[in-house]
Amino acid sequence: MGPHGLTLGQGLAPQAITTDGRGTGRADLFRNLAFIALGTEFDIQFRVIDTTTSAVVLASACYQFTVSQ
Hints:
Blueprint: E1 9-10, E2 13-14, E3 41-49, E4 56-66
Antiparallel strand pairs: 1-2, 3-4
């Protein structure tokens, strides 16, 4: 598979992450992968964006993920 940009949130609905005065925030996020074949591998990099400007405010390293049961 080539590179794709998928929104992670509450299923298909994007989820805002509210932060405190120090910039700390938590959210339970998920994406339904039921339509993807078991064993399919993805490279994933998480990015958090400012919803007003779309600027990336936090990015993770790149991780490999394999779809399993």
